[in-house]
Amino acid sequence: MIKPVALAARVLDVVLVVSGAYFASQIRFDDIGQRSFYYAFVAFAAAFALALFPAFGVYESWRGRSKMGLAGQVSLAWLTVQTCALVLMFTLHRSDFVSRLWFAYWTAMTGALMIVSRIVVHRVLARMRVAGLNLRKVAVVGRGSHAAELVRKIDGCTAAGFRTAAVLDVLHDGPALSNVIPTVPAFDDLRTFTDYIRAQDVHELWLALPLSEEHTIYECVKELREDLVNIRFMPDLRSVAMFESSMIDLLGVPAINLVASPLSQTSELQKEMFDRLFAAVALISLAPLLLGIAVAVKLSSRGPVLFRQKRKGADGRVFTIYKFRSMRLHTEKAGTLRQATRHDERITRVGAFLRRTSLDELPQFFNVLRGDMSVVGPRPHALEHDDLYQKVVAGYIQRYRIKPGITGWAQINGYRGETDRIEKMERRVEHDLYYLGNWSFGLDMRIIAATIVKGLVHNNAY
Questions:
Q1: DSSP β-bridge partners for residue 407
Q2: pTM, 2 dp
Q3: Which of 38, 230, 267, 361 would suit a FRET pair with 144, their CA atoms being 20 to 30 Å apart?
Q4: Is residue 242 part of a domain?
Q5: Looking at the 3D structure of the chain, how many domains does it have?
């Protein structure tokens, strides 16, 4: 059953789809005689939005979560809807009737309206929560630094709408929760604590306990299983988990990811859809440039236009990466690979320009279309370098939990080019692991924008 708030959000989205189409028609509308066709097109898009938006988590509660992430989710969902609508029009042989400028205005205006409306709603709700309205009371069970940090976060993020209502100290090491916020009632007896939760109508019980406290977890659930209280287990996994831990379902059994891909199946699907669409648009848009570079490379020295090399992809699968050839033909000793250095005599004049501007990487959009790579992700290294650095750089192999990318967090922060010292590779890996642990669609957009604005030319690229 759809909740009233979610239903209102769906109705608002339909209104925004129609409103965006109307405003776009005031700017650009080629053929008045085709109005009925445009009405049908808009209706299809609205229907697709109602069907697909829930799969992107657009209507889930965003309380306490990143607004940039929300904007990214909405943008990706709306672009997917528009792509589906265009595919339908193409299938019906009606795509030629659609004004491209009208479609572009409609897509941009509706997407902007959806994002702005949600930000406005969330800011209004945040102000209400700061004022003491629409609050959810939280009781916390635990002791030590992990539980204390959780209580501080609840108290410090008032806009999220949570308030600490009571704490229960159950362990005997670390700081007591009663000392974190002295004004909050503190208990040391479970029965008294649960009676207080019922009397004060507390909505949430958060268990900030180590994995070893199975008995305490069981007793808390047993005491409140007949009450309408949300019980959430928040174990301290920082010492054992590589990335932010998540709960998944395996064969009907709940499991917590400790060392696994940091992206959920939904996130992977979203990233995959964006990658294929972005790569297709990039290749079509850059086709003249690609052709010009190919001719320049062919005339610069003998040899093929494209350079092919084996690299590792997601889960360590080996694939062939494509680049524009930037070096003269030469041979390498078996089992060794010499990195390009400053003033390397093997690099052609055309190749030096391509490497400095990163234009030699453009053929990798074909790798993205094939599913070997992503637009954003850790940069793949030569197999010989993988064998070397995996032994000496901690966490190096974790880079291959997701698909490698054409650009990445490390690259826009200056960690690209030659890695003549282990320290350089360690810093690059640190940035790659940060990206894996903090991935969001918004972060990908930020990296792409930074690559376009400042990432094409870099002093370390030679």
A1: 376
A2: 0.60
A3: 230
A4: no
A5: 3
